[in-house]
Amino acid sequence: MTKAEKVDRILAILDERYPEPPIPLHHKDAYTLLIAVLLSAQCTDERVNKITPLLFERADNPYDMVKLTVEEIKEIIRPCGLSPMKSKGIYGLSQMIIDKHDGQVPDNFKDLEAMPAVGHKTASVVMSQAFGVPAFPVDTHIHRLAYRWGLSSGKSVEQTEKDLKRLTPKEVWNKLHLQIIYFGREFCPARGHNRDVCPICSIYGRKNMER
Q1: What pTM was computed for the model?
Q2: Which of its termini does the chain have fewer beta carbons within 10 Å around, N or C?
């Protein structure tokens, strides 16, 4: 089986199981999505979704956010972990959105990645899910699955992103990264994974033969 054939079959499995995958982080616009994604670093989406309503009740836009102190933000988001860094990032990017972008989240990678605490993965999520721009956000979970499935070398998330973009059609990227996340949670976890019952690893896993 060629790698292209394997990719087609994996995409078919994902499409069958998750035809319309929802965005796991609750939000109402680009700003609240940006904040939610920032908070999700080393934190579960479930916990983020419990904390963001408390934060957004106080401030769901950059103008209200900068009315809070960094310390106030930190106390609210503390359960998400890394609160000192994240609170400074939330305050700083909110001020930057006001000062440089007229209060609107910018719709390009350069400006997003110039913001405090916003890396390429966070920017990719915002670009794909808030603005519909084709992007392929790769977190540690997608990185792990791409390696298990023999679609990437697994050397870095940056390389995994390049490999997945090269192997898959651009028009499916925004949906595909969500499909992989949901599949990983249901069938392909980091711990306690049984490759024999996994619908993808059992057939198309790295140890299986391919040309």
Answers
A1: 0.92
A2: C
